[in-house]
Amino acid sequence: MDRSRLRAALGPILVLLGLWIALVPFTRPLPGGADFQLESTPRVGCRSPLLGAFSDDRPTGTAYTTPRPMKGDPTIEVEVPCGSRARFRLGLGVVILAGGALAHRRSHVP
């Protein structure tokens, strides 16, 4: 496989990956104890990195105060900051998007 065909295939994939990283909302693990479930880790949903990077995105979740919680144990409201992670995801997404656009552009230059 020559380089031009590789760039032609890789360009659109990188563009889509960059858009996905920069635009799709993400989750953060919930600090503190939470209901034990084998299939999932307790998480708090953050907004899209495009919105969260420029605003104070701090979702809240309910966490248990004990390490191995049982039903009826005391809980607290926990605030999870998403701003720094959103700025990182936005920056990474833009870099990957630009790399994909450049690879796609170079694959079509005669």
Summarize the structure.
The chain contains three helices and four strands. The radius of gyration is 20 Å and the shape is elongated.
Order of helices and strands: HEEHEEH
Computed structural class = alpha+beta
Radius of gyration: 20 Å
Largest sheet, in brief, is: 2 strands, antiparallel
Low-confidence stretches: none
Oligomeric state: single chain
Give, in spatial order, the strands making up the sheet with the most strands: 1-2
Distance between the termini: 18 Å
The mean pLDDT is 82
Percent of residues in helices comes to 40-55%
Question: What number of structural domains do the residues give?
Answer: 1
β-strand number: 4
Given the C-alpha coordinates, what overall shape results? elongated
What is the beta-strand fraction? 5-15%
What is the count of helical runs? 3
Features:
alpha+beta; two-stranded antiparallel sheet; 110 residues
Write the layout of secondary structure elements.
Elements: H1 3-23, E1 27-29, E2 43-45, H2 49-52, E3 60-64, E4 75-79, H3 83-107
Antiparallel strand pairs: 1-2, 3-4
Helix pairs in contact: 1-3
